[in-house]
Amino acid sequence: MEEKVSGYLAEDIAAFMTGFDYMDQGFETGDSDLVIKGNVVIQRVLGREPQFTNQKEFDDLMESEEVFQL
Questions:
Q1: pLDDT single digits (tens) 53-69
Q2: Would you say 49 and 38 are in contact if contact means Cβ atoms under 8 Å apart?
């Protein structure tokens, strides 16, 4: 399992690192949009389509009746 995960991560390491860099910048500056942007990059590498791409979309989702999916 560890070999498969390592191989998978190695294929997309640049995208993962970009996502983590955005998240680090967001945590350092308090910019939630950068944290979310990093999360979106990583989710897309993993084949997921995020439900929100910025803080406003997240807030709108939380106020809606739409189901929040993890």
A1: 999 999 999 999 988 87
A2: no
The 3-class SS string of 2-48 reads HHHHHHHHHHCHHHHHHHHHHHHHHHHHCCHHHHHHHHHHHHHHCCC
Amino acid letter, residue 26? G
Please list, residue by residue across 3-24, b when 16 or more beta carbons sit within 10 angstroms of its beta carbon and e when fewer do.
eeeeeeeeebeeebebbeebbe
Cα of first residue to Cα of last residue in the chain, in angstroms, is 23
How does residue 33 score in pLDDT terms, banded at 50, 70 and 90?
very high
Q: What is the DSSP letter of 53?
A: S
| Residue-level pLDDT at 12 | 86
